[in-house]
């Protein structure tokens, strides 16, 4: 019995010593040798062409806010001009980001809205209004809706806003072959 305890003690001691030496080796190899690492190369700038001025329809100034961050180049706080007219905008919602254009023969648009209503209220509104406007709701899961109308498709996502209300994201595509 005493021999078993001694053997167990020796194994524990050996493990502790090995662990300590490993820790010391890692610590020493991680020390600064006094030389500086070379700086990372600067990222190359890419050229970007902003869309034509008539790509978006401006909405009232109420959509702008002093606490909003600057928008990415080519985006506006507006509903894009090619946004389908049979998709309603939630009453009182203000666009915070929007862009539209033709991509590979399809008219595509996206808009982010800020609504003062809860996500549940927003989803309920869109589920009924889309059907009233000729859309078929393909899926609704409590956070998003996908719907279709002939050659058009749309996806809508709703999330609670950090400042209250909801953030609503609508993405559309209409094939124009």
Offer a few descriptive terms.
2 helices; 177 residues; TATA-Binding Protein; globular; 6-stranded antiparallel beta sheet; alpha+beta; two-stranded antiparallel sheet; 31% strand
Reported CATH architecture of the domain at 53-175: 2-Layer Sandwich
Structural class designation: alpha+beta
What order do the helices and strands follow?
Answer: HEEEEHEEEE
Which stretches of 5+ consecutive residues score pLDDT under 50?
4-34, 43-66
User: What is the fold-level CATH name, i.e. the topology of the domain at 53-175?
Assistant: TATA-Binding Protein
Can you count the helices?
2
**What is the overall silhouette?**
globular
| DSSP strand content | 25-35%
Characterise the protein shown here.
The chain has helices at 2-29, 119-132; strands at residues 56-57, 79-80, 94-103, 106-115, 136-140, 144-149, 152-160, 166-175. It is α+β, with helices and mostly antiparallel strands. It has a domain at 53-175: TATA-Binding Protein. Strands 3-4-8-7-6-5 form a six-stranded antiparallel sheet, covered by helices on one side. A two-stranded antiparallel sheet has the order 1-2. The chain is globular and about 40 Å long.
Structural topology:
Layout: H1 2-29, E1 56-57, E2 79-80, E3 94-103, E4 106-115, H2 119-132, E5 136-140, E6 144-149, E7 152-160, E8 166-175
Antiparallel strand pairs: 1-2, 3-4, 4-8, 5-6, 6-7, 7-8
